[in-house]
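Sat 14:20. Reprocessing the chain from the morning session after the first attempt stalled halfway. Input below, unchanged.
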Amino acid sequence: MDTPESSATRLRRATPALVVALLVLAVTVGQVAGTRAVREQLPDAHRTVATVLEVVEAPAARSAGPPRSAVRATWTGPTGEPQVGTLVLDGRPDPGNSRTIWTDGGGAPVRVPIEATTAGLSAASLVLLLGAAALLGARVWTTTVEAERDRHALAAEWAAVEPLWSGRGGVPGDR
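Finished this time. Tokens:
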């Protein structure tokens, strides 16, 4: 006897394809969100390399958190002109060390923009979480509907057979 597939079975069979589609969507959203976050945060930010000329102020020996040093450094601005100024860098850089910094359109140092990776991972995680919740909700819902349908069908079949089975209804063909 050929029975039609239940919606729960169809959903179970489609789940791997839905998971792949969800992963592709999450990666795409993550890429777009990461790129957009950096552009919106600092639209004219430029990455450049600063070379330490001298340490102006070494980090305090008992300061809380990671050590940071004030240094005099040189770097190239976005238009190619050399810049010299004081920067606060993580760690204990020595003269001659190079570090990546971010500058504005005029070559002045600016804070580090949010990492595109961090923004992208946050957005992708949110998409995955919401998608997984929707997929799980759909599976639970279809399974519940199928179980309720089966319960009603069994109750109807039992209502038809029970009087004969219990002896209350007479034997078929006894009329």
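The beta strands are 46-57, 68-76, 82-90, 98-103, 109-110.
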